[in-house]
Amino acid sequence: MAGRRAAVKAIDWAAFAERVPPNQKAMFNALKTRSDALSARLAALPEKPPAIDWAYYKSAVAKAGMVDEFQKKFSALKVPEPVDTQTAKVNGQEQEAAKSTAEYVQASKARIAQYEQQLQKLRSMIPFEQMTYEDLHEAFPETRLDKEKYPYWPHKPIADL
Q1: Which terminal residue of the chain has fewer beta carbons within 10 Å of its beta carbon, N or C?
Q2: Does the model's pTM come out above 0.70?
């Protein structure tokens, strides 16, 4: 049993605990306790099941041939191990998530650089208290009113208000 159990992945409980929100700590602790209990029960099982003493049953069972029949059936019994069909799918999803995460991080870094440029522009301009209207319109062109195209107040199209 232990040889077959080696294929099971170990869980990094410390890393898992860091990602658990505070309101779900109780559920996480219950999961860890249950997992530890099941792991301990599984580790307590022997590598191979105990051998059946067929000679004892042949002498103890009154019906002749019944134990021989059971022994033949038992030795012919092969319990199939389940085939892992989901690991490939999960690995594909993991790779896809890693790729989308890398793309998101790259796009975020580009946005951060753009925002830092804007922030640098705002830090380097004249304080608002010292600005004239010309300085304001130069720094923020969208505030300029087009009095020639729209001669009446608010000097903008009504739809833009």
Answers
A1: C
A2: no
